[in-house]
């Protein structure tokens, strides 16, 4: 008789376990770390000519989960050298630049804010689009 009362509980457990879904097909997220070198591209729509102008700079990027990021290279005119912290998930990477001061912009681009990114263990591509007129892209290859 006592087993008869346990039957609904056993049936509930059986159905609940059958309805749970474990998806083991999710790819592992490989977060970018290490030294990278490559190009920074500023692609801007010229309102006068309706054509895209491209400016480039060769940069090096160091990413470490324990110490953060540092960007060096051709930082004389287009892009600023900087350092700070970063965090990433499978789709986005966010940089908090310790040298960036929004109150005093210096005319150079900083690695600051949230970027879409793609990383395959060797190539690191980060980009952000501002409406249809400006795109900032970083195309890096892992150095080590």
Structure write-up:
It is a single chain. The protein is mainly β. The chain has one domain (34-142): Porin. It is built from 1 helix and 8 strands, in the order αββββββββ. It has one helix spanning 2-19; strands at residues 34-45, 52-64, 68-73, 82-88, 92-97, 113-119, 123-130, 134-142. It has an 8-stranded antiparallel β-barrel. A hairpin with a 3-residue loop joins β4 and β5 (92-97). The N and C termini lie far apart (70 Å). Mean pLDDT is 85; it is low at 1-7.
What is the class in the CATH system? Mainly Beta
Give a short account of the largest sheet.
Answer: 8 strands, antiparallel, barrel
Report the helical percentage: 10-25%
The number of helical runs is: 1
**Average pLDDT reading:** 85
Short key terms for the protein model shown above:
single chain; 144 residues; mainly beta; Porin
Summarize the structure.
With 144 residues, the protein is mainly β. The protein has a single domain, classed as Porin (Beta Barrel), CATH 2.40.160.
Any chance you could write out the topology, listing elements then pairs?
Elements: H1 2-19, E1 34-45, E2 52-64, E3 68-73, E4 82-88, E5 92-97, E6 113-119, E7 123-130, E8 134-142
Antiparallel strand pairs: 1-2, 1-8, 2-3, 3-4, 4-5, 5-6, 6-7, 7-8
């Amino acid at each position: 008789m006592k087993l008869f009362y346990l039957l609904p509980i056993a049936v509930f457990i059986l159905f609940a376990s059958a309805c749970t879904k474990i998806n083991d097909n999710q790819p592992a997220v490989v977060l970018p770390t290490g030294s990278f070198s490559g190009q920074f591209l500023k692609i801007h729509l010229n309102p006068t000519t309706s054509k895209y102008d491209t400016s480039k700079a060769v940069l090096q990027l160091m990413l470490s989960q324990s110490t953060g990021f540092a960007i060096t290279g051709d930082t004389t005119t287009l892009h600023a050298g900087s350092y700070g912290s970063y965090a990433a998930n499978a789709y986005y990477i966010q940089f908090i630049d310790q040298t960036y001061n929004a109150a005093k912009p210096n005319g150079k681009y900083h690695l600051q804010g949230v970027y879409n990114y793609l990383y395959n263990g060797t190539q690191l591509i980060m980009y952000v689009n501002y409406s249809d007129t400006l795109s900032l892209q970083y195309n890096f290859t892992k150095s080590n």
